[in-house]
Amino acid sequence: MKQKMTVAEKREARWAYLFVFPTMLGLIVLNFYPFFNTIYQSFCKTGDFGKGNKLVGLLNYKMVLTRAETWQSLWNTVKYAIIEVPFGIVIALLLAVLLNKKIAGRSIYRTIFFLPMVCAPAAVAMVWKWLYNTQFGLLNNVFHTRIEWISNPKIAWISIGIIGVWSIIGYNMVLFIGGLQEIPGDYYEAASIDGATGVRAFFNITLPLLSPTTFFIVQTRIIGALTIFDLMFMVMDKTNVALPKVQSIVYLFYQYAFTNGDKGYGATLVMVLVAFIMIITFILQKAEKHIVYHN
Amino acid sequence: MEGYAAKQRRTTILIHVILIVMSFIMIVPFAWMILTALKTNQEAISVSPFYILPHNGWHWENFGTVWKSYNFLILYKNTLLMIFWRVVCAVLTATMAGYAFGRLKFPGKNFLFSLVLVQMMIPAQIFIIPQYLMVSKMGMLNTQFGLVFPGLVTAFGTYLLKTGFEGLPKDLEEAAMIDGCNIGQRFLMIMMPLTKSSMVSLGIFTAVFAFKDLMWPMIVCTNASTTTLSAGLAKMQGQYGSDYPAMMAAATLAVLPMIVIYVIFQKQFVEGIATSGGKL
Amino acid sequence: MKRVDIRNTMNDIKSNTRGMSRKERLGYIFAYYWLHVFGAVLAVFFIIYFLTHFLFGIKENWIYVTFTNVLTSDEGVNALRDDFIEYTGYDLKEKNVVFNANSYFDATTVQGTNNSYFQAFVAMIEAGDLDAVIGTKDNIAAVGASGRLKDLSSEEMRELFASYSDRFVYCTPIDEEYSEDEVPVGIDISDSSIVGKYGIYTGDCVLGLGAYTKHAEEVLKFLKYIYEDI
After folding, report:
1. pTM to 2 decimals?
2. Nearest CA of chain B to the CA of A154: how many Å?
3. All partners of chain A with 3 or more CB pairs under 8 angstroms
4. Cα–Cα distance measured from residue A210 to residue A212, given in angstroms and rounded to the nearest whole number
5. Partner residue opposite A12 with nearest CB, options B15, B104, B200
């Protein structure tokens, strides 16, 4: 049973549509039009040598869902997310809370943590190769070990996950600092009168009041980690035996759609990935009411 | 009371120790980039665990050579302009949409917001070809508009700002409503200033991604005079693929304006302190 | 609530600024309506910008050629472009001639294609903007194998490039359904002026046509040019 909207509600809705219009128009033109194209392509054998698309029904889906490499790369991506999301968030939260205190040199610290974001990718790759190299690497030489950081399939996914955590800390930290600024200062004043400072204030005030921001970061990082593309190729060569155990599903898509020119098959991989992320997002959004504190 | 002060000092020292250790971990690649820029190529490509500083003198002239071989001023100008427009567009559209999603009620809200979420799930690689086609058909290749085009709106930013608006206390807006402000005025005068921190975060994100974006400038701007730093310098990587010192010197020069922008932006974080409006 | 429209606003401004000098009046308008003024100016600017652009600004290409993996300086490519324009008499005011030498990838491996250059290259081919691509034999054959180049044995191409058939470079398509035999996708131009006079490449080089090109005849002109000029 739907109630008729009042005048005030109608006015509110009009404003709302005006506000979302630019964004929605942009998203539809820039992103959803290409996405619908991709959906269509996933049912096609796409044209080679300038020939058009040919509808083949569910053939692509049948192939994608029955091939082991699809599930292997999906599993690799999930494993990566399991490392990157929690560690990247906890470390960034810790840093953001420390950097939100009035301490000496705060601006300098904040700038240093920002540097990895704008550092040349080639330099980042060189450093990690220098760290991870089995023979000449810093890690093995300092600890006098012979660990094959990136060529042992059992270890490689952790090594790659560490690079992921390292690269994402700065981003998460910026978001956390932004969220911390929006916590009203008088909450802390009231709490310190009650004797809650330091660690107790963190758990009693900061964490609950920051939970919307934290939820946002968890949600976007899960999506981000599952759509990770070529992080692993920063340090791994194509001859690396551990490659099949770490390559992500987006990379598999790239291999088919771009390198091999089989756009239909690539599009189907994208559809599988999007469906997978949708399920996780749906669960998360349903759970939001229970884990996020709203004042 | 003395015990309290001593405890306070210990905490401060501990905080600094943690921050310095983390700073060291985070700064390594950046330091590496600058140190490599000062080496000879032979040194740069040698693999050795403890061989970090330049041994055959510090080659500061690498910077000069790179500066002369590229028209950095034009590249800076193009890049900064692109960053400026992308930040303005993204923050503007995302703040408006974020306010609607976070504070207003309207039919179809959940559906439209789920579209925003879905956009983030789609791998960005599938947008390349259609977006290029659009810019090409509009005849906007090699223009500033072409560079900004994919950054006109942002799903990530919309979600971020929605979170920011949702967190604001209700009573502020109610007071304004009683004062007879319409929704537009409420948004502009009261709500928007309170989400400054989220807007700054989004600004930083947009700027960083615009700066790092390599593929898009490469596609839409084939002219050396219209392209951006990332794409302009990639040309060097292709041409002199193994000249690491030159590459790193160029990358260092490219990054300088970004650091300046960040330092200015992050100051805004400190100022944007919100209060709950007096009531607890 | 009062309706906000232009007439009401104008009346407000008029009644509130009665008796002010022009300067004061402008100051008043700016103080209270700066956002409106700013928005209006921006809107007018964009409307004019886009109108002039769409009416006069859109230019198509005569021909678009990508030179992959050029390791020499750009001078050779630029000289070739100038000479070619002179040879054909293209009017650059009407359409553009693009010779793009900023493209570095190795299509023979998955990793060699994992860069922005290759993505840009693919986008240009699929958009139909790229007419011809020049590179090493292996590179062009690998691009051809993914079905992104014209099949030179197809009906529309066969006649056009018949005189170059002894120079054809073949590849085996990844897509077995298309053809199990080898397909000609490139023309070997290692003995042309591209290598000789202009010195853009030092070793072998091959030309292929983008699968969606509309300027096959211009590419033919280009081929004639680089051979007549030796």
Report:
1. 0.88
2. 24
3. B, C
4. 6
5. B104
Which chains reach chain C with 3 or more Cβ–Cβ distances below 8 angstroms? Answer: A, B
pLDDT the model gives residue C76: 86
* Residue A183 DSSP one-character state: S
The residues, ordered by sequence, that sit 6+ positions from A48 with a Cβ below 8 Å of its Cβ are A261, C146, C147, C173, C175, C178, C211
User: What is the DSSP code string of B65-125?
Assistant: HHHHHTTHHHHHHHHHHHHHHHHHHHHHHHHHHHHHHHH---TTHHHHHHHHHHHHHS-GG
Helix or strand run (H / E) with residue B194: helix B192-194
**Could you count the other beta carbons within 10 Å of the beta carbon of residue C218?**
20
Contact B229, B207 (CB under 8 A): no
Interchain proximity C174–A261, CB inside 8 Å: yes
Quote the tokens at residue C21.
């000098």
Reported in sequence order, the residue ranges of A63-169 that DSSP labels E, i.e. its strands, are none
Tell me how many degrees the CA angle A243-A42-B158 measures, rounded to the nearest 5.
80
Collapsing DSSP states into helix, strand and coil, what is residue B268?
helix
Please report residues of A whose CB lies closer than 8 A to that of B117: 281, 285
Query: Given an 8 Å threshold on Cβ–Cβ distance, is A175 in contact with B201?
Result: yes
* Length, in residues, of chain C: 230
- Enter the tokens of residue B227: 């392209």
List, for residues A223-276, the tens digit of each pLDDT value.
Answer: 999 999 878 777 787 778 888 888 899 999 998 998 888 889 999 999 999 999
Cβ of A50 within 8 Å of Cβ of C211? The answer is yes
CA distance C25 to C1: 26
Contact residues, chain B, for A220 at CB < 8 Å: 120, 156, 159
What is the structure's pLDDT at C137? 92
The helix-helix angle for C22-52 and C6-16 (nearest 10°) equals 150
| C3: nearest CA partner in chain A | A11
Chain B residues in contact with A134 (beta carbon < 8 A): none
Chains touching B, CB cut-off 8 Å, 3+ pairs: A, C
- Please name which of A38, A42, A46 lies closest in space to residue A262, comparing C-alpha atoms: A46
Per-residue pLDDT of chain C (230 residues), as tens digits, is 344 566 777 777 777 777 778 888 888 777 777 777 787 888 888 888 877 777 766 778 899 999 998 887 778 888 899 999 988 888 888 888 888 888 888 888 877 888 888 888 998 898 888 999 999 999 999 999 988 999 898 888 888 888 888 889 999 888 877 877 888 999 999 888 878 788 888 888 999 999 988 899 899 999 988 887 54
Cβ-proximal residues to A18 (8 Å cutoff; 6+ apart), any chain? none
Min distance C120 CA to chain B CA atoms (Å): 5
CATH number of B71-276: 1.10.3720.10
Chain A residues within 8 A of B252 when measuring between CB atoms? 120
Q: Report yes or no: C195 and C76 within 8 Å, Cβ to Cβ.
A: no
What is the domain partition of chain B in residue ranges? 2-61, 71-276
B29 touches chain A (CB under 8 A): yes
ipTM of the complex: 0.91
Q: Which candidate, A15, A258, A126, places its Cα nearest to that of C125?
A: A258
Chain B residues within an 8 Å CB radius of A142: 49
